Amino acid sequence: xxxxxxxxxxxxxxxxxxxxxxxxxxxxxxxxxxxxxxxxxxxxxxxxxxxxxxxxxxxxxxxxxxxxxxxxxxxxxxxxxxxxxxxxxxxxxxxxxxxxx
Amino acid sequence: xxxxxxxxxxxxxxxxxxxxxxxxxxxxxxxxxxxxxxxxxxxxxxxxxxxxxxxxxxxxxxxxxxxxxxxxxxxxxxxxxxxxxxxxxxxxxxxxxxxxxxxxxxxxxxxxxxxxxxxxxxxxxxxxxxxxxxxxxxxxxxxxxxxxxxxxxxxxxxxxxxxxxxxxxxxxxxxxxxxxxxxxxxxxxxxxxxxxxxxxxxxxxxxxxxxxxxxxxxxx
Lengths: 101, 220
What we know:
The complex is a heterodimer of chains A (101) and B (220). Chain A is 49% helix and 0% strand. Chain A has 101 residues and is mostly helical. Chain A has one domain (1-101). The longest helix of chain A is centred in the middle third of the chain and has 17 residues, at 49-65. Chain B has 220 residues and is mainly alpha-helical. Chain B has two domains: 18-109, RNA polymerase sigma factor, region 2, helix turn helix motif (Rna Polymerase Sigma Factor, Chain: A), CATH 1.10.1740; 119-219, Orthogonal Bundle (Arc Repressor Mutant, subunit A). Chain B has helices at 27-35, 39-61, 64-81, 91-109, 117-120, 146-154, 158-169, 174-181, 185-205, 210-219. Classes of the chains: A mainly alpha (101), B mainly alpha (220). Chains A and B meet through α1, α3 and α4 of A and α2, α3, α6, α7 and α9 of B.
């Protein structure tokens, strides 16, 4: 798996499910990240339905992960109280900082 | 595993677009006023971004108490550094990056050495995803319930969770993650893959059927 000793690409015609598993992180990490639509893998996935099922699951997880991007949780009111206290303790004034972004 | 019922978005997972936030009305004025020491303006910036910052901390840390502490630290850091914001990137992007860096620093201080992901934050054998990809799985097709996914992410080992959140949730590319975590891109890819395998396993353990998952999602 992303092993530096692995050749860049496996032989797609002779690839075994074990080979597929080893290369899968790289398949996902290259191109557009969608293994299920990679034309090089269509024949293999058709012949290995369990591998295809794994790919579908992992792609579904990745897709649904984006739904977690939307912020849904609020901090407690105590957080702002603490921030205010600390700001007051630091002088209450924002000191211009000239460091670069 | 059934091939029926997949309901997944077909967009590229890491386009980077979804991590950018559009400008928020009144934000630019609040930033300038806050730079000049207006406490009300800083309060407005907090109100505009607290949810985003806190949710990010919560996802990365998986712990409410630590997430609140880091939210506090992020805004205090913002308070001190706001003068250095010159608008070369979106404010939300800048604040987001600031928060990510603070959380990573926090984890390093806690002794979570992110330099070598494989060696230092690889989970134990018990936590590692099982190598049963060849088994036929009737469960995970179709929709994944958001709440179940959220819980599963929170229960991931820290190293897996970090890379998964940064890549799949926040939209960072592997090369960006590698820079942030001071590891190789191959390491980032490997950790992400293991994280997804572990999530698959955890979601299967929740016993969702496609029908149940679909009903749950429809009810949200």
